[in-house]
Amino acid sequence: MFHNCWQRYLIGCYSGEKSSGFPKNWVINFDEPSSYSKYLSGDALFCALGTTIKKAGSQAAFRKIDFQYVVDFASVAAKNGIKRFSVVSSLGSKADTSNFYLREDGKACHIKY
Hints:
By secondary structure, this protein is α/β, with parallel strands linked by helices. The protein contains three helices and four strands; from the N terminus they run βββααβα. α2 (59-79) runs parallel beside α3.
């Protein structure tokens, strides 16, 4: 799956048990892109940020995580010279759907960074 991949990193908000060191783990603050900028480097970045409206507590909080954090993450990646940015999203995500959940995921997937 990770052919010709020298390093793998897991960047997120999970603060549970430490892994054996591979992949490397950092806990970051997604509200402050400058706090994670130093960790983003390489040729490609895969983003799997996401939540549910129930877990987020509101549509506004959901949008912040599923849309704004993804956009911010991609912007920092582009500024850091990362050439490929891929978003792992929900099946059926479309920017023009009437379903709020799928629409917000779809919007994040179609922005030109």
